[in-house]
Amino acid sequence: MSYRYQVQSSNGRRWRLPVTIAAAVVAVAGGGLGMAVAGTNRTAAASTIVCPDVAGKLPAVPAKAKAEVDRNLALLQTQIGEANNRLATSAGQGGPNFVQNAILGPLKDKRVATINRIATAIGRQATKPTGLDSLAGCALSGSGGGGGGGGGGAAAPAAPPAAEPPAAEPPAAAPPAAAGKINCPDVAGRLPSIPAQARDEVDRNLALLETQIGEANNRLATSAGQGGPNFVQNAILGPLADKRLATVNRIATAIGRHAAKPEGLGALAPCSLAG
Questions:
Q1: Domain limits of the chain?
Q2: Among residues 80, 116, 167, 195, which is most buried (max CB within 10 A)?
Q3: How far is residue 57's CA from residue 128's CA, in Å, rounded to a whole number?
């Protein structure tokens, strides 16, 4: 059934329009608005982290290194998954550089360490591959796919950290970053007697622990005032604990190849901020 209603124009003439036409106009306008809102939400939700493919850039992997290489290749995928989960659950947090400082930067650090372990594992049995570090950096992509890392540049502006930076947050983070220093538990003093066959690898990883602390303290000094009140924990202390845990585990494994593997060293991984 079709109904009509009257509209009076400015010159006094009356026009009768079918109600169905008016309803259609409203429906189209409302639908367009809904599509615009949905499109905005899809854009925000579509951003994902894309990293260069490492497996495809490796030379022939010696049989004796295969297990260790595969383990670290799987770890690279785990790291990307964790970073994407962090990206999805932290939308709107921190300032405009939050994603770079708290997600992409730490992810790159983890990937550098993992890729170096892959190169070292291959290098023990064959020629050590070089230049793999260039595959560590990742980017944001709004396309939701791809593993090559080549298409992330165009979608970076659509990243989740579009929220305006809270004015009160930088001052909250600045005092600890400016005044603090990172304090980590001593690992060398907690080790058992080190077999001679493991000495070189253990010493190499102990030196790496010191390098990691130095890099974290440098990051602390150069990032004063960045991010929100949790910036130091999320962008510096958390990633440092992850790196230290991997390094401490390598130390325990090296010792365990020639003697009883020490237990409980993972408890020495977390560090804190000391004034």
A1: 4-40, 47-165, 170-275
A2: 80
A3: 13
pLDDT at 35: 38
What pLDDT is attached to residue 66?
92
Q: Alpha-carbon distance 43 to 58, whole Å?
A: 34
Long-range CB contacts for residues 246-253, cutoff 8 Å, separation at least 24: 246/113, 246/114, 247/113, 247/205, 247/208, 247/209, 247/212, 248/187, 248/205, 248/209, 250/117, 250/201, 250/205, 251/187, 251/191, 251/201, 251/202, 251/205, 251/206
Amino acid identity of residue 20, one-letter, is T
**Nearest CA among 250, 261, 240 for reference residue 205:** 250
Considering only CA atoms, which of 135, 151, 139 is closest in space to residue 52? 135
The whole-model pTM stands at: 0.42
User: Which has the higher per-residue pLDDT, 148 or 76?
Assistant: 76
